[in-house]
Specification:
Layout lengths: L2 H4 L14 H17 L10 H12 L4 E2 L1 H16 L12 H17 L4 E2 L1 H18 L1 E2 L4 E2 L2 H4 L4 H21 L2 E2 H12 L3 H14 L2 E2 L5 E4 L1
Parallel strand pairs: 1-2
Antiparallel strand pairs: 3-4, 5-7, 6-7
């Protein structure tokens, strides 16, 4: 799914299909048994008509934030933002996530048919948000929550490396015009400790994105 669409979701959770012999065996037996016997009717715990009416009524409720809930959401947002104050730290949360927290708190209060959002609703929303960020917003390189991983598809650690390569290309261009790829790889390894294999991969990414191009074989230039 494109990042532009993915970033519009308030919460994202990953369902991983991990091969596991015993679980896979039970699943296959269950599916094959259904096809052999047919699907047995299942009585829902709540009658469908009643559930439909409950949801319709709950959706009409417009709960408002109480002071304790507002305080808890604000404290969490500021605490997460303060973790991103240093220049090298990734951005852990943005105003969009704060709005998501409010919507999630509202939804929880609404599901309980309450017209006020309580502190417990805010706590539940924060717990859900934390879980979502831990699943999809962790930069595996730094082990830190990086919201830009969701918003742009690139963690800060990767963006920093790409910027280092681009800045090096621009600096070498000013001296030589065209940048010889071998010289660039040597410079990145010597000065910035970027292994040549990784540098090759990152240069390839910049080429695919159109940020740089190769005017002729073995040479690179910024677009």
């Amino acid at each position: 799914m494109p990042v532009t669409i993915l970033s519009r979701f308030d919460l994202i959770f990953v369902l991983r299909d991990v091969p596991e012999k015993e679980t896979d065996s039970k699943m296959s037996e269950h599916i094959l048994e259904i096809h052999r016997k047919g699907l047995s009717p299942v009585e829902p715990p709540i009658p469908t008509d009643l559930l439909r009416k409950y949801i319709s009524y709950a959706k009409a409720i417009k709960p408002v934030l109480t002071k304790p809930a507002l305080q808890r959401l604000g404290d969490f947002y500021l605490a997460m933002r303060s973790a991103s104050e240093t220049e090298d730290s990734p951005v852990a949360i943005t105003a969009r996530q704060l709005e998501s927290l409010v919507r999630t708190s509202e939804a929880r209060a609404r599901s309980a048919l309450r017209r006020e959002i309580l502190a417990e609703d805010a706590e539940a929303a924060i717990a859900i948000m934390k879980k979502s960020l831990e699943e999809v917003g962790i930069d595996v390189t730094s082990s830190q929550i990086d919201i830009d991983l969701i918003m742009t598809g690139k963690p800060k650690s990767l963006r920093d490396r790409l910027q280092t390569i681009l800045s090096t290309i621009m600096a070498m261009e000013r001296e030589t015009g065209l940048v010889e790829k071998v010289a660039l790889l040597n410079e990145l390894e010597t000065t910035y400790n970027i292994p040549q294999g990784e540098a090759e991969r990152l240069i390839g990414q910049l080429l695919r994105e159109g940020t740089i191009y190769s005017p002729r074989d073995g040479y690179i230039k910024k677009t």
